[in-house]
Design brief:
- The chain is α+β, with helices and mostly antiparallel strands.
- The protein folds into three domains: 116 residues, Acyl-CoA dehydrogenase/oxidase, N-terminal domain (Butyryl-Coa Dehydrogenase, subunit A, domain 1, Orthogonal Bundle); 109 residues, Butyryl-CoA Dehydrogenase, subunit A, domain 2; 138 residues, Up-down Bundle (Butyryl-CoA Dehydrogenase, subunit A, domain 3), CATH 1.20.140.10.
- The chain is built from 13 helices and eight strands.
- The strands form two sheets. It has a four-stranded mixed sheet with strand order 1-4-5-8, with helices on one face. A four-stranded antiparallel sheet has the order 2-3-7-6, with no helix packed on it.
- The chain starts with 12 loop residues before the first helix and ends with a helix.
- Bound molecules: flavin-adenine dinucleotide (FAD).
- Flavin-adenine dinucleotide binds next to strand 1, strand 3 and helix 13.
Amino acid sequence: MKNLQLSVVQLSEPAKTLRQEIRRFIYEEQEMGTFEPKCDSWLSGYSPNFSRKLGKRQWIGMTWPKRYGGQERSSIERYIVAEELLAAGAPVAAHWIADRQTGPLLLRYGTEHQRKFFLPKIVSGECYFAIGLSEPNAGSDLAAVSLKATKVDKGWILNGNKIWTSGAHFAHYMITLCRTSLKNPEDRHEGMSQLITDLSAPGVTIRPIHLMTGEHHFNEVIFEDVFVSEEMLIGEVGNGWKQGMAELAYERSGPERFLSTFPLLEELVNTLRLNGDNQLLSQVSPLVSNLWTLRNMSMGIAQMLEDNITPDLAAALVKDLGTQFEKQVAEMARLLVSFKSTDLSSRLEKLMSEAVLHAPGFTLRGGTTEILRGIVAKGVVRT
Ligand SMILES: Cc1cc2nc3c(=O)[nH]c(=O)nc-3n(C[C@H](O)[C@H](O)[C@H](O)COP(=O)(O)OP(=O)(O)OC[C@H]3O[C@@H](n4cnc5c(N)ncnc54)[C@H](O)[C@@H]3O)c2cc1C
């Protein structure tokens, strides 16, 4: 059985100062009325203006090399900025995916041309990416990906569909996992590649899939004879599976996997406190202690990234626990509020409806609970 070792992180003085800076910035933005706290803001709080402001403050691509516009700050410092923005429910969806996983992917596997072209634009909060993994017949079973890339002179021609693509309607590019050679029944992970696709290219159609609430969050993306230049291949032809798995570790490892409903938890605790509802507050306290544990685990993962250790197993574990926690917050708020007949603030009502309506997706997106538990089970018995 393999041990899961997550270190307990002590914050340095510069990290503590950074926390004060980002808190002050958020407070000032809220005072100016730039945004209202929102649940699930990292996936549905779209504001290019806010992303550009963060870019100006050098809070995007913080850990990346200075030659690409980054700040060479630590993963723990990046964690602090992410945590504060999520806790405040700030509108960070526009740049979130590019900052979280596209940049690290390009730093690890991209060409120098790709890094120089994309990273400075991401850092300034002006260039957004979508994740092109899921297809109508490939979700949990990602090895079933069938979007076809046919080699032509100086590039590839793409045909096929992606589905559930968050933010494709505002993203400029998508990292598209596709088949560059036929499926090998002996090894289904072979023959996949990652291409950077321009979502405004001729032949790309983006169809909205509306949520039950009418919100437009994700899409179907259809490729019909779309030409992609060979310069847009990431890494090696046929290495897409391995690269995609490395990208997923970034996708699963951050504090957004347990903080999507934090603004609701905070508002709920404040409301119960104001009303002197100590009995109900005691119902919420186990959630707060769970939050504390998850936070320490999540910071341990940030430390793994800092130490150049791929946190795939730990990320799967924390994502599983974290997304269940986010759902519990929504459910607890719903139960307590329906039990109590006191007046609710409009903010609590708004946050609760956002949390309740978005909660079903928490344990699906980025890999379902069942799939994550499979990874954890296999990971801990590996020697
Ligand atoms: C809000 C949201 C945003 C998303 N954004 C994106 C995005 O930007 N880009 C993108 O590519 N995808 C995105 N997705 C898609 C997401 O990654 C898939 O929904 C997820 O991987 C599951 O795939 P599926 O929907 O095809 O379900 P399926 O794979 O069909 O699974 C259905 C059910 O069967 C279970 N199951 C499947 N296989 C097994 C197994 N082997 N053992 C046990 N149980 C199993 C699953 O756990 C699940 O409960 C998003 C999804 C949501 C909800």
